Amino acid sequence: MKQETIARKPMASATAKTPLLGKSAASSISPLIDDVLQALPQGTPRAVARAPGRLDVFGGITEHCGATVLNTPIADHVCVGMASQNDGIISVLHVNGSKKNSHRPYTVKLSALLESTDAGGPDDPDSANERNGFDSAFRCTVGTIAESIREGLLPPPRQGLTLAVGSTLGQSICAGIPAAVAGATLAALSRMFNVEFEPSDAVRICQQVQNRWLGIPVGSADAACVLFGEAHTISQIRGIPYALQRTIPLPEDVVLCGIESGVSNEKAKEKYGMIRTAAHMGRLLIERIVQHEDGERSTWDRILPSISVAEYVRRFRDRIPTKMKGKEFLDRFGETGDPLTHIKPNQVYKIRSRTEHYIYESARALQFAETVSQAIQGDDRTRLFEAGELMYSSHWSYGQRCGLGTAETDSLVSQLRDEGAASDIYGARVSGMGCGGMVTVMMRATSRGFEAIDRILESYGKKTGHNAKILHGSSDGTFVDGAQASSGASSILR
Fold first, then answer.
1. pLDDT for 174 beyond 50
2. Other C-beta atoms within 10 Å of 478: how many?
3. What's the whole-model pTM score?
4. What is the pLDDT of residues 264-308, one digit of tens each?
5. CB 394 within 8 A of CB 58
6. DSSP H helical segments within 213-296, as ranges?
7. Sign (positive/negative) of CA torsion 419, 424, 477, 1?
8. Residues 6 or more apart in contact with residue 382 via CB below 8 angstroms
């Protein structure tokens, strides 16, 4: 399928007149904005922005190896507001409805942040467990400020800032909440300081926040979607080199929903890191084979998705070990060169199956995008069931090739598949980092479709004891819909 890089809607110019949105205008964008504004100090320069969560439609963990992944922005979102203050402190409040968090805010001295932009955290980290998991949101907001300053894109504030963060997403990493918090913070900074961020800079900062401040080795897809995704479309995002490619507009009667399984594995991030490491081990082994056999004749770009499934099976599959201990690999080949992972000597890595997932999943993602596009262009909804079968194949690969499945998400996907065409459900797959988390569903927006979802959630709850939640609806990315509000002048710069 031909891939196109298209021009995106530009961010608001730093020199352009920005309309000041009053309370009623802000509320039409998100009622949460009112709550965030009320939590901030009054009578001082303020700005607030929203950013949507996102669904991993296809591709998920493969982007860091150069695959094209498919995301869509959802209606649930994060709002971040900020106001100037004179105490030299950056304070971050949790907004829960119309009330501030009952705990005192997370704080960091501005001078400490400017001296070292590599760390960041609460002044009293021992109390983090008492704060309802808000530490990650604190690190996202402060990390976004620090990364923007470190990159020379934001003048250091002269005084201090109070930030307020509210969310309809809960703490769902699988719905892209870290990227949404970082994206909303970046948009609020843009308005607060009258600074324009280039799209590539904005995406890079949001990715760095997740990598460096949260320790999540993700790529750029989450950030690109929450910043520039368009409502009711599928964004195609290439991981390496980063490019936001053409979007696939969805007809009104086709929707993408997320089902939060209510199950999370504390080791999901660790397992994802191991899988990423194993895939890069496989890439390095393929690179050695190509260098030995092709030499200067090689045209391979060292990106796994550039290898077709047929070539992989014919040429490489049987030459990649099923598993290998880290020490043995290091002794023979050294590190993989992936900057976000390192091989652990005592860890056993399942190299072949992980490498296969990346190659097969990349091919499936492109085929899914092409099938959906053709179904919509030809107004042939039956072809969406073909795309749905690719989602089921992806789900199987997550569990069997990567070990990221759970009995709970398997149960959800199995029930969705059983409902199938009779209930207007096209397909489903576990998404994100797996290990529980989110199941993405493609379906027709009909009453019988949503009635089937209700039946499944009720059955699932009785069977597992977990309360699953559906996320549906869509909204534009924060730099697409202009959903930022500001009040006062930019008077706190050096």
1. yes
2. 31
3. 0.85
4. 867 777 888 899 999 999 999 999 999 999 988 888 888 898 999
5. yes
6. 221-228, 268-294
7. positive
8. 375
Pair type for strands 254-264 and 436-444? antiparallel
Residues 6+ apart with CB under 8 A from 365: 58, 59, 62, 67, 68, 69, 70
How is residue 278 written in tokens?
């194993």
- Angle, helices 199-208 vs 221-228, to 10°: value is 130
Sort 235 into a burial class: Cβ within 10 Å, 0-12 / 13-18 / 19+.
buried
Q: Strand 243-249 and strand 233-238: pairing?
A: antiparallel
At residue 368, the pLDDT reads 97
Residue 95: in which H helix or E strand, if any? strand 89-96
CA dist 78 and 170 (Å) reads 9
For the record, the structure tokens of 151 come out as 């990159």
**What is the C-alpha separation between 207 and 230, in angstroms, rounded?**
19
Residue found under tokens 């091989």: 343
| Residue 120: pLDDT over 50 | no
CA distances from 481 to 95, 308, 409, 476 (A): 23, 38, 33, 6
Backbone angles phi, psi at 401, to 5 degrees: -90, -30
Cα separation of 233 and 248, whole Å?
Answer: 5
Q: For residue 94, give the H/E element and its range.
A: strand 89-96
pLDDT of residue 457: 95
* Residue indicated by tokens 């965030």: 36
Domain 23-249+476-487 has CATH 3.40.630.30: no
Is the confidence at residue 53, as pLDDT, over 90? Answer: yes
Return the number of other C-beta atoms located less than 10 Å from residue 473's C-beta. Answer: 15
Whether residue 59 contacts residue 362, with contact meaning beta carbons closer than 8 Å, is answered with: yes
The confidence score (pLDDT) of residue 107 equals: 87
Rounded to the nearest 5°, which phi and psi values hold at 491? -115, 15
Cα separations in angstroms, 30 against 24, 227, 475: 10, 17, 11
Residues 480, 77: Cα–Cα separation, whole Å: 14
Gap between the Cα atoms of 427 and 368, Å rounded: 11
Q: Residue 97's pLDDT is what?
A: 64
Phi, psi of 22 (to 5 degrees): -80, -175
Q: How many other C-beta atoms can be found within 10 angstroms of the C-beta atom of residue 152?
A: 8
Domain locations in the chain as residue ranges: 23-249+476-487, 268-354
Burial 124-151 (b: 16+ CB within 10 A, else e): eeeebeebeebbbbbbbbbbbbbbbbbe
Q: Are strands 469-471 and 254-264 parallel, antiparallel or unpaired?
A: antiparallel
Res 483 pLDDT > 80: no
Question: By C-alpha distance, which of 398, 402, 370, 400 is closest to 386?
Answer: 370
